TrEMBL record:
PROSITE patterns: ABC_TM1F (PS50929), ABC_TRANSPORTER_1 (PS00211), ABC_TRANSPORTER_2 (PS50893). CDD domains: ABC_6TM_Tm287_like. This is ABC transporter ATP-binding protein. Residues 334-567 form the ABC transporter domain. It comes from the Bacteria. The lineage of its organism: Bacteria, Bacillati, Bacillota, Bacilli, Bacillales. InterPro entries: AAA+_ATPase, ABC1_TM_dom, ABC1_TM_sf, ABC_transporter-like_ATP-bd, ABC_transporter-like_CS, P-loop_NTPase, Type_1_exporter.
Length: 576
């Protein structure tokens, strides 16, 4: 509820209108059996046509009034529910953008997908139902009970007796259902995750002829989802027949004792009919209630999942991200001092005792076997993750003291797997810096050695990319990502193995180009060939800095480095 209320607040007037109209509907409904009693006792039994017309007219008028109120109510209820869901989706999406990256990684993408779409829809439906009928059902039950008691207390007693039993049953269903439906939603996350994985990996699945295997995997998850849903639904649907049985029993009791007291001239026929009518309405309300409760329980489980996302801290790294005046240092030398790092979800140290420096405008090449921690090291600079120990300085300032957005605006980061967005090539490049001119775009593309390739495309810079740049080659995607980073005119350029798909000639052209851009560059690469361009080479092994120095120095000093360089040379000779 605490999650829900702030989102409903902007719609409180519409919600209030909807609820008051619902009350109007309720009053109309509660008056009906009374009017019916009047019609029977005062008009029909006395064969008074005038009175019959009068009461009949009142009933028709009231019915139309109630109908109009219901119509306007659903109009407002839909308004509230849609607006509320829209705002909630926006808030969740906003949270995705603002929560710490490590928190973001703690949710699975498919779970977030479900939370932002399916879950919100469930909540939206329940808000609508809530304003339409959910509040009305209990009121209708209570109101009918009171009205029936005033009409004939003795007969209505049979209705009152069963109430505690029904309340207990419904309460149990709600509690148990909540747990069951959370499990259902988790299974749905899993199902979505599997579909997502298959959609992304379809190329590989086809090439490996793993379609049947994937189908089996899907069938298992799908079956699991079905079983969980069935169990959850069965629980809530089982209560309906039970409720109806109890209510029908009390209806029969009313009929039985009612007819006896009518024959004994103790009660009027109209009163018996009225009490019966209330009983039937209560029965209907209970049946409805237990059905809505199913939807409400699902929504409650969905809401608790949304709340989890919303509860994630909004400031990346909390308060210490804004300590500084936010002035960007005008030099971008990088200094690591005794840095240790590990991922939040594990104890293991990924980096340990890392100390090195890169002067302003110089290039450091980071080498090391796969899994050595190269990507992890680069990710510390834009503070995607926090170092566990030690300090990272840029321009002499501890990066924890630089405002996060200021720090990141100075960084051009090219991730190991290039990410492009649906849109034109120009859009994708401008994504790096929106206010760049077309000349700057072309300049960056030239520097990244992709300009000529772009010019060969039918629409050149206006060529449309598919999602994730699927209609480009791996190397083209890499170079576009580099151009996008260069367009930012960053002080600090971080390139994570993004020349891996480039041929040697293009790579050396690119590296020569990068030299001219004047930014401090950290380049992760597997090729010793690239290390010749570097002012410093950092050799990582198992999260530790094995050696550092110039290419020539390392050749003389480090056996591992010599081995890497020599094996690469042999390979080259072999191919030549
Ligand atoms: P990386 O830093 O990704 O290693 P790398 O970049 O040197 O390797 P490659 O050349 O293949 O790109 O990983 C170091 C360790 O950290 C490795 O054991 C995997 C682990 N790791 C995580 O646990 N979570 C993560 O998000 C990443 C990126 C790595
Ligand atoms: Mg890596």
């Amino acid at each position: 509820m605490r999650t829900l209320l702030p989102f409903l607040k902007p719609y409180r007037i519409s919600a209030a209108v909807a609820l008051s109209l619902m009350l109007v509907e309720l009053v109309v409904e509660l008056c009906f059996p009374l009017l019916m009693a009047k019609l029977i006792d005062g008009a029909i039994l006395r064969q008074d046509v005038g009175a019959a017309l009068k009461w009949g007219g009142v009933m028709i008028g009231l019915a139309l009034f109630g109908f109009a109120a219901g119509l306007v109510n659903s109009f407002y209820a839909a308004d509230v529910a849609q607006g509320f869901a829209h705002d909630m989706r926006r808030a969740l999406f906003g949270k995705l953008q603002s929560m710490a990256f490590s928190d973001f990684r703690a949710f699975s993408p498919s779970s977030l997908m479900t939370r932002l779409t399916g879950d919100i829809n469930q909540i939206q439906n329940s808000v609508f139902l809530g304003l339409r009928v959910f509040v009305r059902a209990p009121l209708l039950i209570a109101g009918s009970m009171i009205m029936a008691l005033t009409v004939d207390a003795r007969l209505a007693l049979y209705l009152v007796v069963v109430t505690p039993i029904l309340v207990v049953v419904l309460g149990y269903t709600i509690r148990k259902g909540f747990r069951l439906f959370r499990l259902v939603q988790e299974r749905l996350d899993k199902l979505n995750g599997l579909v997502r994985e298959n959609l992304i990996g379809m190329r590989l699945i086809r090439a490996y002829v793993r379609g049947d295997h994937e189908k089996n995997r899907f069938a298992e998850t799908n079956g699991d989802y079905m079983r969980r849903s069935t169990a959850a639904l069965r629980l809530s649907e089982m209560t309906v027949p039970g409720l109806l049985l109890l209510m029908n029993a009390s209806v029969l009791l009313i009929l039985w004792f009612g007819s006896r007291s009518v024959t004994a001239y103790e009660t009027e026929v109209g009163d018996v009919v009225a009490v019966l009518n209330y009983a039937i309405r209560i029965t209907g309300a209970y049946a409805y209630l237990s059905m809505i409760i199913t939807s409400l329980t699902i929504a409650r489980a969905a809401l608790s999942r949304s709340a989890e996302v919303l509860a994630a801290g909004s400031n990346e790294f909390g308060a210490n991200g804004t300590a500084a005046d936010g002035i960007p240092p005008d030099r971008a030398d990088v200094l690591f001092e005794g840095v240790a790092f590990g991922y939040p979800d594990s104890e293991a140290a990924v980096l340990d005792g890392i100390t090195f420096s890169v002067n302003d405008g110089e290039t450091a090449v980071i080498m090391g076997a796969t899994g050595a921690g190269k990507t992890s090291l680069l990710q510390l600079l834009p503070r995607l993750y926090e170092a566990r120990r030690g300090t990272v300085r840029v321009g002499g300032t501890d990066i924890r003291d630089i405002e996060l957005s200021v720090l990141r605006r100075q960084i051009g980061y090219v991730a190991q797997e290039s990410t492009l967005f649906a849109g034109t090539i120009r859009d994708n490049l401008l994504w790096g810096r929106e206010d760049a001119s077309m000349e700057e775009v072309v300049e960056a593309a030239k520097l990244a050695q992709i300009h000529e390739t772009i010019m060969q495309l039918p629409d050149a810079y206006e060529a449309v990319l598919e999602q994730k740049g699927a209609n480009l080659s791996g190397g083209q995607r890499q170079r576009l990502s580099i151009a996008r980073a260069l367009l930012r005119k960053p002080k600090l350029l971080l390139l994570d193995d993004c020349t891996s798909a480039l041929d040697a000639r293009t790579e050396s052209l690119l590296l020569a180009g990068l030299k001219t851009c004047g930014c401090t560059t950290l380049l992760v690469t597997q090729k010793a060939q690239a290390a010749r361009w570097a002012d410093t080479v950092l050799l990582l092994a198992d999260g530790k800095l094995l050696a550092q120095g110039k290419h020539g120095e390392l050749l003389a000093r480090s056996e591992t480095y010599r081995f890497i360089v020599e094996s690469e040379r042999e390979e080259a000779a072999h191919h030549a």
